[in-house]
Amino acid sequence: MNTITPQILLRAYAVGIFPMAETAQDTALYWVDPDERGIIPLNGLHISRSLRKQVRRRPFRVSVDTVFDQVIEACGTKVRNRKVTWINKRIRALYGQLHKMGCCHSVECWQDAELVGGLYGVRIGAAFFGESMFSRAKDASKVALVHLVARLNAGGFQLLDAQFMNPHLATLGAVQMSRADYQKLLEPAIEAIADFKSFSGDGDAEQVLHYAERR
């Protein structure tokens, strides 16, 4: 892979592929088209009793698209339980451009003035492609995900792509499907219209839970 522009990146997502790097130090990128794909059904997010209590307690102030660069940098930082990261400088630059174009978004969790968790992903039509998340405080990334799903449901989204399955995502309701079944969901979703900015209830825990647990 040589020259990649934000426009090429969006076209890649629209057909089900995305770029990764081997490590943060590697300057090369390669296309990924998994045989098995993980998604979080927007009518199937699993919110445990303890996570529901966290959302209601509101230990974090949640914002959207205020510090995108800080979020992607935090997602690419090595931590104790994540020794290797695929987010290199080219990834940060490309997705930063997508963010400026309005096609890539972040959800952020704060304690006072400190950014303690969040996630980011790409939006095309009514599809949202979750890229990465991070947490520096208990349940911060999970709370960010609950707020994301509420926002997507409120805005009429049809697909939340999680890329790869892992045990953590499985506890939140993620499911795995074949590439062919994923394409059947992807194609109509990218052609549909959705509104990422329509939700204004991040400060209202009951409204967040209402939309996040929509069945």
First-residue to last-residue Cα separation: 41 Å
Structure summary, number of beta strands: 9
Q: What's the tally of helices?
A: 8
- Round the Cα radius of gyration to an integer and report it: 16 Å
Total number of domains = 1
Are there runs of 5+ residues with pLDDT below 50, and where? Answer: none
What is the CATH architecture descriptor? 3-Layer(aba) Sandwich
What's the pLDDT, averaged over the residues? 92
Give the topology string: H per helix, E per strand: HEEEHEHHEEEHEHEHH
Largest sheet: 7 strands, mixed
Question: Could you name the CATH class?
Answer: Alpha Beta
Share of helix, binned: 25-40%
Could you outline the blueprint of secondary structure elements for this entry?
Layout: H1 6-14, E1 18-20, E2 30-32, E3 36-39, H2 49-57, E4 61-64, H3 68-75, H4 89-100, E5 104-111, E6 114-124, E7 127-135, H5 140-154, E8 159-163, H6 167-171, E9 175-178, H7 179-191, H8 205-212
Describe what you observe in this structure.
- This protein is an alpha+beta fold and 215 residues long.
- The protein has a single domain (6-212), classed as 3-Layer(aba) Sandwich (Aminopeptidase), CATH 3.40.630.70.
- 37% of the residues lie in helices and 24% in strands.
- The chain is built from eight helices and nine strands.
- The protein has helices spanning 6-14, 49-57, 68-75, 89-100, 140-154, 167-171, 179-191, 205-212; strands at 18-20, 30-32, 36-39, 61-64, 104-111, 114-124, 127-135, 159-163, 175-178.
- A seven-stranded mixed β-sheet has the order 4-5-6-7-8-3-9, sandwiched between helices. It has a two-stranded antiparallel sheet with strand order 1-2.
- A hairpin with a 2-residue loop joins β5 (104-111) and β6 (114-124).
- α2 packs antiparallel against α8 (205-212) and α5 (140-154) packs across α8.
- The longest helix is centred in the C-terminal third of the chain and has 15 residues, at 140-154.
- The termini are far apart.
- The mean pLDDT is 92.
